[in-house]
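Write out the 3D structure for:
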Amino acid sequence: MKRLVMMLALILLVACSEDITVHENVDKDLATDTLQVVEILEELADKQKEPSEKQQTVFDEYLSKYSYQYEQGNLEGANKTIYEYTENSMTYMLDRITSLNSGKDYVNDLKVTVTKYIRDGE
């Protein structure tokens, strides 16, 4: 039953992903960059492969841009939570991408969670 609910949520999320409205409490750049990272993680989980050089550059730039803001305490509320979920998930997935059979479920959970924070601002 849980899997069915997740699949329905994922289908709805994918169908609506182009129309995600960024809440006023969420930084638009962070939201856009996070969704890009999640999209790449989805692709990697589907194919169970290591990131390409271009994909790794996206990850590195994301971490470079937002880890400093995070460490300085400049990310608050939903922005802080979005960054924490994404950074932790990137680390987890990239360490296990070729051996993790449940990677798709993990990335789907990440996508649902960060999209909720981006849309709702909390």
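Residues 2-120 form one domain.
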